[in-house]
Amino acid sequence: MQASFRTVVCLAAVLTAVAARADDLKIGLIAPFSGSETAGLEMDNGIKAFFKLHGDVVAGRKVIVISRDAPTPAPDVARRLAQELVTRDKVDVLAGHLFTPTAIAAGQVSTQSKTPMLIMNAATSGILAKFPYTARASFTVAQTTAPLARWVAKNGMKRVFTIVADYAPGIDSENAFQREFVEAGGTMTGSIRVPLDTIDFASYIRRIQDSETGGVFAFLPAPDQAKNFIKAFRDAGLDKKGVKLVVEGGMLQPQITATLDDDAIGIISSQHYSEDHQSQENMAFVEAYKSVSGNRIPTYISVGAFDAMNMLYKAVEAQAGKLDPVKSVEIWRNMKLESPRGPVSFDPQTRDIVQNIYIRRLERKNGILTNVEFETYDAVKDNGKQ
Fold first, then answer.
1. What is the pTM of this model?
2. Residue 96: which of 163, 166, 41 has the closest Cα?
3. DSSP of 184-211
4. 2-139+278-351: what fold?
5. What whole-number distance in Å separates Cα of residue 168 and Cα of residue 130?
6. What is the pLDDT of residues 69-86, one digit of tens each?
7. CA torsion angle 252 253 254 258 (round to 10)
8. Phi/psi at 356 (nearest 5 deg)?
């Protein structure tokens, strides 16, 4: 099934490229469309939701999306796909990227070919430094984690243990949490970095218990990791012993919370987007997203794709239908948007997104486990490069 689905995606991309007209605005979307990840589907649906609300023509140019499947963080695959999109398909902009390695590999192609690129997810700090024609429409984990550390210190947790996935975003989250928490007067009781394929947390839970910590910060965003760790934490009775669990919001995506039970109610997280965000923009986005996705719930990946399209449209409109790489970057540096996630701007020095970060509590709302925002940190920049 996976092989046949991958074939369909690639065939559809080829047919789209053949059907495209010379004056069409072509987007080369590199994302996982096969395997266990759903990010490609979430990005594609985010784009479709944008089309539903804003149309698929900008400044007189029909917008065409040419999708390429990058199911794993393999730089050589992403580099080849980006090169094909630029040289053969003649795309005007590169986009997508769940994984940091694919964003870096495609960024090299973007730089060499002077093709604008918009990152819809890849969340490691510092990606943009070497890629002058790239901007990020998503977030960094340092950006979403640092406010949570400050909130934790302010709300009575003085001793905290960190456990993160052992890859670049996990290490960014660990560094950001520990730095901010210690600066706010907290004490670290220990830290663990676990392999990305870890699903058995028994030995790690014992180390947390032995640390006599008062709280745990976790960043384990893979669905099986997230739900297994939360279950192991509860089964060990750590919450009943007064140990608080706080997590980066990637651990509580809708597809993960749908697998949890009421024992998970009360978990505190931080993120830049929740499907429950209370605004007219988000209500319209959620309805549009559901209508194009078979009633799925949008995620932070979906909103990254939606806002990347908004960035693209505004740059094309400002250039009367053109997409000059230098002018586009200058437009993005100074852009302000009202996103489904809230107000968005960009750091003119780094081209990284500046946005509100929300502290959320997992609650059952209308029968569904939902991340309910209750405190906001305004206009947060990425601090992972400090």
1. 0.92
2. 41
3. TT-EEEEEEEE-TT----HHHHHHHHHT
4. Rossmann fold (3.40.50)
5. 17
6. 999 999 999 999 999 999
7. -50
8. -70, 145
